[in-house]
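Team,

Forwarding the record for the chain on the shared tracking sheet. I've put the sequence and predicted structure together so nobody has to dig through attachments.
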Amino acid sequence: MGKQALKGDMLTRRKLGILNVIGTMDLPGESVYPLYIAASVDSQEPVAKRGEDLLKKIASGTNMDHPKLINRLFLLFNGTTGTENVTPEHNVAPANASLKMKLMSGFCRSIAAANSFPATLQCIFGCMYGSGTTLRLKQMGMEFTVWVFKHGKIDQLKLMGPVILNAILKMLDGFTGSETDALSRETKTFSFQAIGLLAQRLPQLFREKTEMAVRLFDALKLETQSLRSTIQEAIISLCFCYRPCFDGTGSGTTLRLKQMGMEFTVWVFKHGKIDQLKLMGPVILNAILKMLDGFTGSETDALSRETKTFSFQAIGLLAQRLPQLFREKTEMAVRLFDALKLETQSLRSTIQEAIISLVAAYKDSPENILRDLEVLLLANSLAEQNEARFCALRWATSLYNSQHCPSLYICMLSAADPKLDIREIALEGLFLKEEGRTIVSNHDHKYPKFVEMLEYILKQQPKLIDSSEMRSQKLLFPSQVYLVMIKFLVKCFELEMEESNTQAVGTDFLDSAQKMCLWLRGLLSHTDLSTRESVSRLLGMASCALSDAESCSLLSELVSSISQPQKLRFEAQHGGLCAIGFVSAHCLHRMPAVSKAVTQNAVKCLVDVVNLETAPLASVAMEALGHIGICGALPLLVNDSSPGTQVLEVLHERLSKLLSGDDIKSIQKIALSLGHLCLNETSSSHLKIALDLLFSLSRSKVGLLILKDERCAGTVWMLSLTMYCGQQSSIQLMLPKIQEAFSHLLGDQNELTQELASQGMSIIYELGDASMKKNLVDALVNTLTGTSKRKRAIKLVEDSEVFQEGTIGESPTGGKISTYKELCNLANEMGQPDLIYKFMDLANHQASLNSKRGAAFGFSKIAKQAGDALRPHLRLLIPRLIRYQYDPDKNVQDAMAHIWKALIQDPKKAVDEHLNHIFDDLLVQCGSRLWRSREASCLALADIIQGRKFDQVREHLKKLWIAAFRAMDDIKETVRNAGDKLCRAVTSLTIRICDVTLTELSDAKQAMDIVLPFLLSEGIMSKVDSVRKASIGVVMKLAKGAGVALRPHLSDLVCCMLESLSSLEDQGLNYVELHAANIGIETEKLENLRISISKGSPMWETLDLCINIVDIESLDQLIPRLTQLVRGGVGLNTRVGVASFISLLVQKVGTEIKP
């Protein structure tokens, strides 16, 4: 028996006997562990079960770090393969896969196994590349690699680390990227973990090259979400390899390595855990700053710029994640603001983002830090670089509250900045708009004390109060800064004046008011008009804080400056007149009022200016009189010849001349001032003079020019009368006329007028009777559906504006084209007087659009009230509302969407119910002469047909294709783009309803009967390249999915594809063939090339698909057509294609082909 191999039950009994005997012996676990672990994976179940039981008994007491035990286990795993001088009786075969997996679970718990070079290396390679290895073994091998890299000694890692790393990378390259099973994911997970651990233990292995960094970043973008966190940890570990690259201390450090190191830092600061960042953040930050200090500032190469970019990004990210790191010092803020001024333009946006991130770190800083930052921000708010000014302003509005004078002063300086975004932020910071000062949004918005704000301004610019230079080049501030300062001080002053009504006014406040009046008087002759007006208004308010005597003195000085014989320049006169009006008004408003003689003197001065000066100054003087009239009736003019005369009696003749002039601005000011004068007037004669003067405007040419604003104002009045006096009998009688007027105003170019008119329509609907409500709804529906007729004839004069300025460009000489006269001139210059009719047609279409948009405003309001009255009109309204929601004009889109929401409660149900009407309207409009209707219809159809079933589109499918192909060949580009979108949508719909796996076979056949003949006859044969390509693509996709539904059309499809092989061939090849001999090209090679190209075409691919669905019935129609093509086919590709197709057909159907 000793020479015979044991088999079957005998072998099993022997194995069990050995296990039982050894199990009764009290042997150390290290001695019997190899025997038990081998038995636990035996092929015989009793042996494996017994071995597993014995293994469990000794597992807890076995020292897995015993050197001899680990050596025996590695011998069991690897065998003696490759070992020299091994006698045959001591030869050990490598373990099978089951035993290897059992052993690997033990190795992953043994420190000794991790340090048993070279057996460790041999074991890992056996798992990864050994004969008979499995995916499970690879996974366990990578798990053991992680263990080795974590617990292996450095000297051993230096030997085997590079080898194992190359093996890992080779294995990762072997994955296809599409593995979804758990074992593949775990194997990859352990692989990336191993790389991360090796980067921590042997950083020098990666430092000299960037390949590993590139690989990991690519993996982060390509691998699945479940792996990215592991790859991220590996990248963070790899970052430390490049850390010496930051400051150049690493051996062999290159600029590329520095750049990669900084890119890693950005990643770490973005994704690292907070507890890790607290440890390494300060260290890395110092290294970054040291590296930035090492740059000379003159680097122009891309790597240097990228390195700096990543550096500043890293600082910004660290400021977001660890704000407490910067809060106690201002050095980082100073450094970044300096960098913003010193670095090149390409880096400034990155530095700006870092500075904006850094601001949050200083929000809770100590007072001394915030004071230091005030100085820094003020200096940078005046910097040449707009990025520095922007950041300084952002910090000022974010760090400090709304009562902080230094930050508000910075906002004032920034209000005149050349950059629009800086100016807007400055105004938000000053006037506390909703989007401004988010940092204090949870507090009540409060203004600083007037005294404090004014004193701070004077402290920053002491010369301000003494400055007499008013010309722009010598001003201490830009004129816009003066204007903003004054407006803001007015706000502060108003608040304090409100408080002074209930509280005693302090001496500080009075002193500040006196200083302010003195300062403002110096600004009355400023060169900027808005500044002068604001200064005079503020001077009037400030005079309220003065005593009666001081106010009278101020007013007398202003009157004297205007009345003096020596003429002042226009700016000084204008400012003085404005100031007289406001100061006099506030003097009249005092309780008790100041001396009557003083105000009479001021009024007399203003009347003299109106009588003696030109229209611009006369209108300003009238404005001043109007301001006085608002606060009380004007005093009588007293002179030697009469005891008292009313002002308007004196000015009647002069005002009539001024109002009949052509200075529109002056006329507007005078008209407004007449209204103000009548506010507190009780004399009927005085009121009659004012009304006569105002009504005289209706006869002047200027009245027509300012009609647009007047029309809007008239609409406001008419809406107000209807809203608040609608129940009056006189208004009730006029409701039909008011309705017609509102309807006419719906087409006005002014959007405010449109909206007011629409609100009026809504109120008319509420006030009217049943008949009026019906008429109103019908009128609005007709306007929206385009069936209404304009009732009012519009008279065109020379200056009538037909188009808004800029709508149709400029004339050949560069002039504007907007009025009727300019359009006529343009038509005459072009030698085509009949063009004026086309211009009028365009204008009529523009007015129609305006009417629709205006009607939309009113309709959305009436829709909620009308209820059932609108139901009969839905059939007409819904198709047009859908189309208008895709109109190129965004205003029309918004207005129609507003109606849609108000009118339609269930959009899906409404569309389904009226689907046929919608299709009919949109398909008709696809052929409209108006490009906007064609474009909107195509876009609407592309959305409407999404997800539709065959029954819903059966009647319209062919028309949809016709509309799509026609739009794709449109003269206007935007319509062609809409046609392309519609074609894609119809293609998707057609392929779905013709696919027998998605649609019932009967429906698929009917759809194919409609579409395929049209595509073969009209689409593929089209002269339009885009239509032809789209048709071929659809036909090929239909052949793939239609299956047996394609058989009735097989003969037509096959013949069309065969003929297209030649007809759609690149014509350049024919030219080359004709001249082949001249240029030395063999005809046979050229023909082979043409055939090869045709076999790669979509037509040939479609023919291959047709072969698969041929049956006996389709052969009856196909064979005669093929025979005809064999005899009369034109073109090399067609003839070769026919021969090849017949050959493939014979192989497919065999003897079914009859002669």
